[in-house]
Amino acid sequence: MPELPEVETMRRGILPIVGSRIAEVRQPRSSRRPITVSPKGAAFHRRVVGRQIEAVERAGKRVVIMLDSGDRIVIEPRMTGRILLGEVPDADFVRMAFDLDGAEDRQLLFCDVRGLGVVRLLSPRQYAARLGPEALGPDALTIDADTLRERLSASRRAIKVALLDQKAVAGIGNIYASEILHLAGIHPATACRRLSRDQWLRLHAATGTVLEEAVRYEGSTLSDGAYMNARNERGGYQNHHRVYQRAGQACRRCVDSQIVRLVQAQRSTFFCPGCQSRR
Q1: What's the pLDDT tens digit per position in 37-90?
Q2: CA–CA distance from 274 to each of 113, 259, 266 (Å)?
């Protein structure tokens, strides 16, 4: 958390900063664990202050701010990071602040409760090496059915585990892998190489449906309240989860079965044994 829908919501939320200029960048003092920033201090400051923001894009689970110099500010929220415009509820969580000229919102803030987030300033060459096609798979929101199958079908891994591999397909995390597999009617422990062509087609269709629906509801804010959109408001897709964190509750599709939780690769997986039989 956050995954593709949450990060895409953040990206769309801060689009008004495009065209503005970075007047100052600060790392306020915090009593919390420090985030990772690269390069540190003066080098980061020197390369971003005075630069115009040309675009805001996304690379998997990262927000990418394009500067007129060609450099990119890459923000990876990880577990509890938020990218916000305007005021924040607790200033102690503010890890980086960008003062902006020429934007209605005069500040862009990166906040992080646990300090696991990462902010990197990358040159075009560094960006290609870290987040180019050799390092990051095709985006889950735009990948086509044939490419999805080609990248995963030879794997012996369970399909749920394989969907979390960002080098294979970028953006899917634990929440949406469970949701996608339920909609596709595929058991999460099924080996990739044992899926039929029809199952791959269903999986691709479910991926698009779930991710687009989650973006429409501005992502999922779970009980910990860690994720908020750019205006510090809750997402709404958690109210539409089919299986995630619903263990012991009735399946909303087949009704007769209860949602089950199992652990795969040290992560919780939720599925319906009725809708997602291994037979």
Answers
A1: 999 989 999 999 999 999 999 999 999 999 999 999 999 999 999 999 977 778
A2: 39, 9, 24
The two three-digit tokens of residue 234, written as one number: 């809750």
Q: Are 26 and 114 in contact (CB under 8 A)?
A: no
Nearest to 158 by CA among 191, 180, 200: 191
Three-state secondary structure string covering 41-104: HHHHHHHHCCCEEEEEEEECCEEEEEECCCCEEEEECCCCEEEEECCCCCHHHEEEEEEEECCC
Q: How far is CA 141 from CA 6, 59, 145, 197, in A?
A: 13, 11, 11, 20
21, 157, 234, 267: the catalytic one is 267
Report pLDDT digits (tens) over 120-164: 999 999 999 999 999 999 999 999 999 999 999 999 999 999 999
H helix or E strand, kind and range, residue 209: helix 197-216
Asked about 156 being catalytic, the answer comes back as: no
Q: Identify which of 1, 95, 99 has the alpha carbon closest to the alpha carbon of residue 50.
A: 99
Q: Are 272 and 279 in contact (CB under 8 A)?
A: no
Residues 58, 61, 82, 95: which is the catalytic one?
61
Whether 134 is a known active-site residue: answer no
Active site (annotated) includes residue 267: yes
Catalytic residue check, 34:
no
Average pLDDT score over the chain: 95
Rounded Cα distance between 226 and 230, Å, is 13
CA 12 to CA 1: how far, in whole Å?
A: 18
